[in-house]
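INPUT
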Amino acid sequence: MIRLTQAPFDPGQALGDFCRDRTETGAVASFTGIARAEQGRTDILELEAYPGFTEREIARHAAAATERFALQDVLVIHRTGPIAPGEAIVFVATAAPHRRAAFEACDFLMDYLKSRAPFWKKETGPDGARWIEPTDRDRDDLARWETS
Amino acid sequence: MARVLLFGRLSDLAGWRERDIPAASLAELRGRIATEDPALFEALQAPAVRTAVDQELVSLDVALRPDSEVAFLPPMSGG
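OUTPUT
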């Protein structure tokens, strides 16, 4: 399931709900991304999404992860709008029969979400506002998953 | 007529986020933007800016219906 939300969410509760009533899963891996203050350089982070398009693109990658790692289930929660330092921006949980697939699928999805997902990110701090584009590091992270 | 959506730095540049522009094709729409706002037109020409019509990415000119939605998407930054 893919969920975009303007409101803050509780990653602990999301993980608890995701794990509930699973008797055949064996492994759930999760990742929570939290907005950084960047030593006072960022007061607020703003994430813009294209409603409908953004969810569909993420769902396409969640389906690719499900197939590649034989997942039983995936959950992605992503904040949009203004986000304060310390708040959760993104939460990914993956469910699989064994841990390796769950870990790898979570890592794979995060590399996609951090580098290519349809979001536009603006940081506002004491020095004004700036749009953030993917870093070389993000691109290198993504390249790890290319199949040759 | 098409509903035109700008994202990220493009909406800052143009000073609007959403607007109706009469055009029967993507090429005609770009032409109108070129007349009204050459700086925005220039920005839209960058190869990294993708175009979606009715939420599907397109790379060539396409016809627009009166209720078409055209989105100009600068490089996607991830979350």
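end of record. DSSP finds three helices and five strands in chain B.
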